[in-house]
Amino acid sequence: NAGVTQTPKFQVLKTGQSMTLQCAQDMNHEYMSWYRQDPGMGLRLIHYSVGAGITDQGEVPNGYNVSRSTTEDFPLRLLSAAPSQTSVYFCASSTRQGANYEQYFGPGTRLTVT
Amino acid sequence: DQQVKQNSPSLSVQEGRISILNCDYTNSMFDYFLWYKKYPAEGPTFLISISSIKDKNEDGRFTVFLNKSAKHLSLHIVPSQPGDSAVYFCAATFWDKIIFGKGTRLHILP
Q1: pLDDT value at position A100?
Q2: pLDDT tens column, B81-100
Q3: For the residues of chain B, what is the DSSP string, one character each?
Q4: Biggest alpha carbon distance in chain B?
Q5: Which residues in chain A are contacts of B49 at CB distance < 8 A?
Q6: Residue in B46, B93, B101 nearest the CB of A42
Q7: What pLDDT does A102 receive?
Q8: For a designed S-S bond to A48, which of A33, A104, B30, B57 qualifies (C-beta 3.0 to 4.6 A apart)?
Q9: Measured in whole angstroms, how far is the alpha carbon of residue A7 from the centre of its chain?
Q10: Residues B62 and B47: beta-carbon distance below 8 Å
């Protein structure tokens, strides 16, 4: 049971390039989400999904796309990278709405856009 | 507008003493409140939660208190240990969304 896995761990992009951050979970969780963590800003929700085929926007969705074709995978796409997207990205999963609403986080992807 | 606020960016506590981390919120519709702990270069891990209909929840050394009238919650760690040095995030849930505070860095001093 690997939990939540994210690839890559580190990435450097040039402005304007596109890329996909991968996220997978093997816990059969319905709910998956993407966050970015910036110094002094805490964790901000980018996009989330409550099940396969269903996605919705979080607090800071601009510049990012998501899709959820399977329960296990929830990739995050940067369409045209900008320096403002330099951040650490975390993927998380949970049962949809348990009593504790506990989310399991991946180890993160550190992205630098130059 | 910040709905979940952690007004102390950092806190230093002597080992063995009590650590108290505070969190304020603005939305009275939040249904659960959670605390997460984060070490450097790792993802956050769940610590403890409390339903909005309760005022206290305890799990070992960790206790969360909720004061709904003041829209305030706090996490008490007793006794504080060196491994408790980390960033602590307060979070609140509403429907399918979860909103995090900016975090408080806790330093446990020897």
Answers
A1: 57
A2: 999 999 999 999 887 778 89
A3: --SEE---SEEEEETTS-EEEEEEE--TT--EEEEEEE-TTS--EEEEEEETT-SEEEETTEEEEEETTTTEEEEEESS--GGG-EEEEEEEEETTEEEE---EEEEEE-
A4: 42
A5: 100-102
A6: B101
A7: 82
A8: A33
A9: 11
A10: yes
